[in-house]
Design brief:
Elements lengths: L6 E12 L2 E13 L3 E8 L6 H10 L1 H14 L5 E6 L5 E4 L3 H19 L9 H6 L12
Parallel strand pairs: 3-4
Antiparallel strand pairs: 1-2, 2-3, 4-5
Helix pairs in contact: 2-3
Length: 144
């Protein structure tokens, strides 16, 4: 069943400054409920068909934590919740994020930025990461 809520923002770009780093991205969708607040939604084409797996991925998603941080910079408040919607299966995962979740995102941004500034480009190969990388055919560290 389709949601009766009309999206407030679709493919909305965002940018914010976190310490010395500028973070740019794009929300897939944001729904605004006047009574309950915002829901930040990200669509995935991964073949996820298990609702518990979808919920777990949503709760653990660094991407969604960064989106919640971006939304807070944009609006002054955290979104009420975040969602992953898996297009192929129609499965959806939901999570309510806290300030602690946003703090994890801030620490991840700072850690990655420090590594980049220090020139630390150590590879972290995995089938998932390498499978999405444009350089997997020429990288000596790629795994499949």
């Amino acid at each position: 069943m389709a949601s009766p809520i009309v999206p407030a923002q679709v493919e909305k770009e965002f940018a914010f400054q976190q310490g010395k780093s500028r973070i740019d991205g794009r929300f897939d969708r944001i729904d605004l409920d006047p009574e309950e607040g915002a829901t930040v939604i990200d669509y995935k084409t991964s073949a996820i068909s298990d609702a518990e797996d979808a919920a777990s991925r949503t709760r653990k998603s660094l991407q969604l934590r960064i989106y919640a941080l971006a939304y807070r910079y944009q609006s002054g408040v955290l979104p009420r919740r975040v969602e992953l919607r898996f297009v192929e299966s129609g499965v959806m995962g939901r999570a309510e994020l806290s300030e602690e979740d946003v703090a994890i995102a801030v620490k991840a941004i700072e850690r990655v930025a420090a590594g980049i500034r220090a020139g630390n480009y150590e590879p972290h190969p995995s089938p998932k990461v390498c499978g999405q990388c444009a350089f997997n055919r020429i990288c000596p560290h790629a795994v499949s």
